[in-house]
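Re: [ENG-882] Designed sequences occasionally contain unexpected residues at chain ends

Forwarding the minimal case from QA. Structure tokens:
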């Protein structure tokens, strides 16, 4: 049983026990027994995150990828689910890191594999779910990541301003996968409906095209730079690094996927709070509005 279902079951048991307690509270033996049961149930509930959302999302489509209420192109499903899965993977890592301070040290990795658990009919589509695992918090992190990706899609579809603000908060690879995801939907002239928990989002085919055009209009200018300064550390859970140049300017960004964990630990041991030469990929993203955003990716660290 998934963590979400366990929580719902515990809550139902608490409600039933409280009702029964009100009926027998004048009976000492029964009241004491029910009181102990309530304490045990509430203690069990405390083990779970306060806001548990079911890690499930529905993606509904229309257009040439759909044949009425009969079916959906398997190739279309593959091309849309893959980049969506990658966005969830990246976002789940960010969600987990943000919650570390609240629940202690998190695991270095999180299981984010999604399964197709249903093919909704009407507006045909797919239901993607994170199934139960030994990681107690994985479902919580994936569920919140799903809703945050919905927010990214919404902001991308609304305006240039909301899109540019949203992109500042996500790693570059999410922008790449967002572009792939929207392209497949736009090419099939489909609308997009997304439903997760109590959140829902609906974009018309025109909205989807506008969102794709907005992402496609961004231009990335990449270059490799070397910054001399002080290395401030690596955050393995979120894949982030921090540094400061000799002028006091703070530099932060994401870690290249080419760097292994052992190599990153070695960087931390050798260069933490020391003067060094930091090898970075600098990516300047230029938007259709003329605005520009700069991202950094850590490629390596060397002695001065």
């Amino acid at each position: 049983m998934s963590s979400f279902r366990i929580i719902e079951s515990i809550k139902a048991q608490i409600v039933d026990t409280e009702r029964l307690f009100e009926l027998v509270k004048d009976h000492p033996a029964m009241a004491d027994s029910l009181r102990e049961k309530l304490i045990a149930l509430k203690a069990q509930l405390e083990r779970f995150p306060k806001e548990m959302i079911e890690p499930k999302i529905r993606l509904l489509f229309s257009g040439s990828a759909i044949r009425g209420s009969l079916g959906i192109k398997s190739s279309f499903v593959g091309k849309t689910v893959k980049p969506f899965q990658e966005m969830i993977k990246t976002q789940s890592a960010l969600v987990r890191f943000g919650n570390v301070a609240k629940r202690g040290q998190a695991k270095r990795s999180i299981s984010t594999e999604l399964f197709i658990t249903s093919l909704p009919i009407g507006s045909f589509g797919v239901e993607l779910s994170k199934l139960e695992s030994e990681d107690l918090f994985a479902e919580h992190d994936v569920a919140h990541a799903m809703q945050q990706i919905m927010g990214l899609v919404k902001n991308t579809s609304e305006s240039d301003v909301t899109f540019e603000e949203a992109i500042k908060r996500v790693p570059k690879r999410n922008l790449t996968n967002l572009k792939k995801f929207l392209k497949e939907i736009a090419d099939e002239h489909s609308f997009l409906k997304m439903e997760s928990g109590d959140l829902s989002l609906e974009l018309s085919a025109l909205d989807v095209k506008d969102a794709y055009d907005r992402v496609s209009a961004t231009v990335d200018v990449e270059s490799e730079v070397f910054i001399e300064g002080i290395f401030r550390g690596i955050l393995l859970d979120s894949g982030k690094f921090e540094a400061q140049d000799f002028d006091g300017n703070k530099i932060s960004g994401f870690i290249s996927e080419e760097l292994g964990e052992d190599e990153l630990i070695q960087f931390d041991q050798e260069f933490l709070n020391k003067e060094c030469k930091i090898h970075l990929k600098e990516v300047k993203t230029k938007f259709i509005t003329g605005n520009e955003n700069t991202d950094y990716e850590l490629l390596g660290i060397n002695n001065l």
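QA comment: On inspection the terminal residues look reasonable. The chain has a mean pLDDT of 85. Proposing we downgrade this to a documentation issue.
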